[in-house]
Write a sequence for this structure.
Protein backbone atom coordinates (compact mmCIF):
# COMPACT_ATOMS: atom_id res chain seq x y z
CA UNK A 1 0.00 0.00 0.00
CA UNK A 2 2.81 2.38 0.97
CA UNK A 3 4.66 1.57 -2.28
CA UNK A 4 1.51 2.43 -4.29
CA UNK A 5 1.10 5.74 -2.43
CA UNK A 6 4.75 6.61 -3.09
CA UNK A 7 4.31 5.81 -6.78
CA UNK A 8 1.24 8.04 -6.97
CA UNK A 9 3.10 10.82 -5.15
CA UNK A 10 5.95 10.46 -7.66
CA UNK A 11 3.53 10.83 -10.57
CA UNK A 12 1.95 13.90 -8.98
CA UNK A 13 5.40 15.45 -8.39
CA UNK A 14 6.35 14.81 -12.01
CA UNK A 15 3.15 16.44 -13.26
CA UNK A 16 3.78 19.43 -10.98
CA UNK A 17 7.32 19.78 -12.30
CA UNK A 18 6.13 19.73 -15.91
CA UNK A 19 3.36 22.23 -15.18
CA UNK A 20 5.76 24.59 -13.37
CA UNK A 21 8.29 24.32 -16.20
CA UNK A 22 5.61 25.15 -18.78
CA UNK A 23 4.40 28.10 -16.71
CA UNK A 24 7.93 29.46 -16.32
CA UNK A 25 8.61 29.02 -20.04
CA UNK A 26 5.30 30.73 -20.86
CA UNK A 27 6.01 33.69 -18.59
CA UNK A 28 9.58 33.95 -19.96
CA UNK A 29 8.26 33.96 -23.52
CA UNK A 30 5.45 36.40 -22.74
CA UNK A 31 7.62 38.93 -20.93
CA UNK A 32 11.06 38.72 -22.47
CA UNK A 33 11.63 36.79 -25.69
CA UNK A 34 9.59 35.44 -28.57
CA UNK A 35 10.52 33.34 -31.63
CA UNK A 36 9.51 34.62 -35.05
CA UNK A 37 9.59 32.82 -38.38
CA UNK A 38 10.34 34.81 -41.55
CA UNK A 39 7.52 33.97 -44.00
CA UNK A 40 8.36 36.35 -46.87
CA UNK A 41 11.27 37.91 -48.73
CA UNK A 42 10.66 41.55 -47.81
CA UNK A 43 13.79 41.72 -45.62
CA UNK A 44 16.29 40.01 -47.93
CA UNK A 45 19.18 39.68 -47.76
CA UNK A 46 19.28 40.56 -44.06
CA UNK A 47 16.61 37.95 -43.37
CA UNK A 48 15.70 35.09 -45.66
CA UNK A 49 12.51 33.07 -45.95
CA UNK A 50 12.84 30.25 -43.43
CA UNK A 51 14.98 32.15 -40.90
CA UNK A 52 13.89 31.71 -37.28
CA UNK A 53 14.75 34.76 -35.21
CA UNK A 54 14.58 35.71 -31.54
CA UNK A 55 12.64 38.85 -30.66
CA UNK A 56 13.80 40.72 -27.55
CA UNK A 57 10.63 42.18 -26.05
CA UNK A 58 12.61 44.20 -23.49
CA UNK A 59 14.80 46.04 -26.03
CA UNK A 60 12.99 49.32 -25.52
CA UNK A 61 12.61 49.09 -21.78
CA UNK A 62 9.14 47.58 -21.70
CA UNK A 63 7.45 44.25 -21.67
CA UNK A 64 5.09 43.79 -24.59
CA UNK A 65 2.60 41.55 -22.85
CA UNK A 66 -0.36 39.78 -24.36
CA UNK A 67 -1.96 37.74 -21.62
CA UNK A 68 -5.27 35.95 -22.16
CA UNK A 69 -5.73 35.22 -18.50
CA UNK A 70 -7.68 37.55 -16.23
CA UNK A 71 -5.22 36.81 -13.43
CA UNK A 72 -2.19 37.91 -15.45
CA UNK A 73 -0.33 40.34 -13.14
CA UNK A 74 1.01 42.54 -15.97
CA UNK A 75 -0.92 43.82 -18.93
CA UNK A 76 0.27 46.11 -21.71
CA UNK A 77 3.62 47.89 -21.78
CA UNK A 78 5.94 49.19 -19.10
CA UNK A 79 8.54 51.96 -19.43
CA UNK A 80 8.04 52.39 -23.18
CA UNK A 81 10.89 53.80 -25.27
CA UNK A 82 11.21 54.65 -28.95
CA UNK A 83 12.97 52.16 -31.25
CA UNK A 84 16.17 53.44 -32.85
CA UNK A 85 16.62 54.20 -36.51
CA UNK A 86 17.98 51.08 -38.22
CA UNK A 87 16.49 48.61 -35.73
CA UNK A 88 14.77 45.55 -37.18
CA UNK A 89 11.49 45.27 -35.32
CA UNK A 90 8.46 43.02 -35.14
CA UNK A 91 5.12 44.77 -34.80
CA UNK A 92 1.46 43.92 -34.85
CA UNK A 93 -0.39 45.04 -37.97
CA UNK A 94 -3.81 46.10 -36.65
CA UNK A 95 -5.37 45.84 -40.12
CA UNK A 96 -4.58 42.14 -40.53
CA UNK A 97 -3.87 41.21 -36.89
CA UNK A 98 -0.62 39.54 -37.96
CA UNK A 99 2.96 40.11 -36.82
CA UNK A 100 5.29 41.67 -39.39
CA UNK A 101 9.00 42.46 -39.45
CA UNK A 102 10.62 45.55 -41.01
CA UNK A 103 13.45 48.02 -40.43
CA UNK A 104 12.90 51.36 -38.68
CA UNK A 105 13.71 54.15 -41.14
CA UNK A 106 11.95 57.19 -39.67
CA UNK A 107 11.25 58.37 -36.12
CA UNK A 108 8.64 60.85 -34.86
CA UNK A 109 9.17 64.21 -36.57
CA UNK A 110 11.37 62.83 -39.38
CA UNK A 111 10.48 63.29 -43.03
CA UNK A 112 10.95 60.33 -45.38
CA UNK A 113 10.78 60.19 -49.17
CA UNK A 114 11.92 57.96 -52.01
CA UNK A 115 13.18 59.62 -55.22
CA UNK A 116 14.25 57.46 -58.15
CA UNK A 117 14.94 54.57 -55.78
CA UNK A 118 17.05 56.64 -53.38
CA UNK A 119 16.01 57.18 -49.76
CA UNK A 120 15.84 60.73 -48.39
CA UNK A 121 15.55 61.39 -44.65
CA UNK A 122 14.92 64.96 -43.54
CA UNK A 123 15.46 66.10 -47.15
CA UNK A 124 18.97 64.60 -47.29
CA UNK A 125 19.87 61.54 -49.40
CA UNK A 126 21.28 58.62 -47.43
CA UNK A 127 24.65 57.22 -48.42
CA UNK A 128 24.36 54.21 -50.73
CA UNK A 129 27.26 52.30 -52.30
CA UNK A 130 27.11 49.24 -54.61
CA UNK A 131 27.92 45.95 -52.92
CA UNK A 132 27.80 43.34 -55.65
CA UNK A 133 24.90 41.06 -56.49
CA UNK A 134 22.64 38.95 -54.32
CA UNK A 135 22.09 35.62 -56.07
CA UNK A 136 19.48 33.03 -55.12
CA UNK A 137 17.84 30.10 -56.87
CA UNK A 138 14.60 30.83 -58.66
CA UNK A 139 12.41 28.28 -56.90
CA UNK A 140 9.44 28.18 -54.51
CA UNK A 141 10.45 29.40 -51.05
CA UNK A 142 8.99 28.47 -47.68
CA UNK A 143 5.70 26.67 -46.98
CA UNK A 144 3.82 29.21 -49.10
CA UNK A 145 5.94 28.41 -52.15
CA UNK A 146 6.47 32.05 -53.14
CA UNK A 147 8.82 32.75 -56.06
CA UNK A 148 11.48 35.48 -55.72
CA UNK A 149 11.63 38.54 -57.96
CA UNK A 150 14.69 38.96 -60.16
CA UNK A 151 16.32 41.88 -61.95
CA UNK A 152 17.97 39.69 -64.59
CA UNK A 153 14.71 39.17 -66.46
CA UNK A 154 12.51 36.11 -66.64
CA UNK A 155 14.47 33.03 -65.58
CA UNK A 156 13.41 29.42 -65.40
CA UNK A 157 12.99 27.43 -62.22
CA UNK A 158 16.36 26.39 -60.85
CA UNK A 159 18.20 29.25 -62.57
CA UNK A 160 20.10 32.07 -60.85
CA UNK A 161 17.90 34.95 -59.73
CA UNK A 162 19.92 38.16 -59.34
CA UNK A 163 19.30 41.38 -57.45
CA UNK A 164 21.57 44.41 -57.15
CA UNK A 165 22.85 44.77 -53.58
CA UNK A 166 23.87 48.03 -51.91
CA UNK A 167 25.17 49.17 -48.54
CA UNK A 168 22.93 51.87 -47.13
CA UNK A 169 24.08 54.07 -44.24
CA UNK A 170 21.38 55.83 -42.24
CA UNK A 171 21.92 59.27 -40.63
CA UNK A 172 22.76 57.72 -37.25
CA UNK A 173 25.54 55.59 -38.79
CA UNK A 174 23.71 52.26 -39.01
CA UNK A 175 24.81 50.43 -42.18
CA UNK A 176 22.83 47.56 -43.66
CA UNK A 177 22.20 45.77 -46.95
CA UNK A 178 19.37 46.65 -49.29
CA UNK A 179 18.30 44.99 -52.55
CA UNK A 180 16.92 46.80 -55.57
CA UNK A 181 15.32 45.58 -58.78
CA UNK A 182 14.34 48.83 -60.46
CA UNK A 183 14.23 52.56 -59.78
CA UNK A 184 10.80 53.30 -61.17
CA UNK A 185 8.53 51.00 -59.18
CA UNK A 186 5.59 52.35 -57.17
CA UNK A 187 7.65 52.49 -53.98
CA UNK A 188 10.65 54.23 -55.53
CA UNK A 189 9.02 57.63 -56.06
CA UNK A 190 6.80 58.64 -53.16
CA UNK A 191 5.27 61.73 -51.60
CA UNK A 192 7.05 63.38 -48.70
CA UNK A 193 6.02 61.62 -45.49
CA UNK A 194 6.22 63.23 -42.05
CA UNK A 195 6.28 60.73 -39.19
CA UNK A 196 3.68 61.76 -36.58
CA UNK A 197 4.27 61.66 -32.81
CA UNK A 198 4.09 58.18 -31.33
CA UNK A 199 4.78 56.45 -34.66
CA UNK A 200 7.65 55.05 -36.73
CA UNK A 201 8.22 54.67 -40.46
CA UNK A 202 9.32 51.17 -41.48
CA UNK A 203 10.63 49.67 -44.70
CA UNK A 204 11.81 46.28 -45.92
CA UNK A 205 15.44 45.86 -46.99
CA UNK A 206 14.21 44.19 -50.19
CA UNK A 207 13.00 47.56 -51.39
CA UNK A 208 11.01 46.46 -54.44
CA UNK A 209 9.29 43.59 -52.69
CA UNK A 210 7.98 45.10 -49.45
CA UNK A 211 4.54 46.43 -48.51
CA UNK A 212 5.60 48.87 -45.82
CA UNK A 213 5.09 52.46 -44.62
CA UNK A 214 5.41 53.78 -48.17
CA UNK A 215 1.94 52.40 -48.79
CA UNK A 216 -1.27 53.08 -46.84
CA UNK A 217 -3.31 50.37 -45.15
CA UNK A 218 -4.44 47.87 -46.43
CA UNK A 219 -1.89 47.88 -49.29
CA UNK A 220 0.96 48.51 -46.85
CA UNK A 221 1.18 49.27 -43.14
CA UNK A 222 1.26 53.06 -43.14
CA UNK A 223 2.78 54.73 -40.08
CA UNK A 224 3.24 52.16 -37.32
CA UNK A 225 2.22 53.14 -33.77
CA UNK A 226 5.07 52.56 -31.37
CA UNK A 227 2.52 50.92 -29.08
CA UNK A 228 2.18 48.14 -31.68
CA UNK A 229 5.91 47.28 -31.63
CA UNK A 230 6.49 43.89 -30.02
CA UNK A 231 10.28 43.96 -29.87
CA UNK A 232 13.62 44.04 -31.64
CA UNK A 233 14.89 41.15 -33.77
CA UNK A 234 18.23 40.21 -32.23
CA UNK A 235 19.48 36.92 -33.67
CA UNK A 236 18.83 34.24 -36.26
CA UNK A 237 18.89 30.97 -34.33
CA UNK A 238 17.96 28.59 -37.13
CA UNK A 239 17.42 28.73 -40.89
CA UNK A 240 15.97 26.36 -43.46
CA UNK A 241 15.55 26.98 -47.18
CA UNK A 242 13.12 24.10 -47.61
CA UNK A 243 9.36 23.95 -47.31
CA UNK A 244 9.60 21.88 -44.13
CA UNK A 245 11.88 21.87 -41.08
CA UNK A 246 12.34 18.14 -41.60
CA UNK A 247 14.19 18.71 -44.89
CA UNK A 248 17.53 18.79 -43.09
CA UNK A 249 19.45 18.96 -46.37
CA UNK A 250 18.01 22.47 -46.87
CA UNK A 251 19.24 23.80 -43.52
CA UNK A 252 21.50 26.87 -43.75
CA UNK A 253 24.07 26.11 -41.06
CA UNK A 254 26.02 29.29 -41.85
CA UNK A 255 23.04 31.33 -40.59
CA UNK A 256 22.62 29.54 -37.25
CA UNK A 257 23.09 31.91 -34.25
CA UNK A 258 23.81 34.92 -36.46
CA UNK A 259 23.33 38.41 -35.05
CA UNK A 260 21.03 40.67 -37.06
CA UNK A 261 22.54 43.95 -38.32
Amino acid sequence: MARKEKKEEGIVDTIKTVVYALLIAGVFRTLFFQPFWIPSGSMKDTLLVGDYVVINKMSYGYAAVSCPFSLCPIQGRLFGATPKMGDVVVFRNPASNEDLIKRVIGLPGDTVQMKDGLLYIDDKPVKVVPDGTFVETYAPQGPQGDLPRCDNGAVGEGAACDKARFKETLPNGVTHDILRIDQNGPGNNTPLFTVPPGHIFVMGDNRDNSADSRFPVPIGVGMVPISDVIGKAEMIIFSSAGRSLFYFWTWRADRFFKWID
Observations:
- Residues 16-30, 63-79 have pLDDT under 50 and may be disordered.
- The domain at 34-126+182-259 is CATH 2.10.109.10 (Umud Fragment, subunit A).
- Residues 1 and 45 are 65 Å apart (CA to CA).
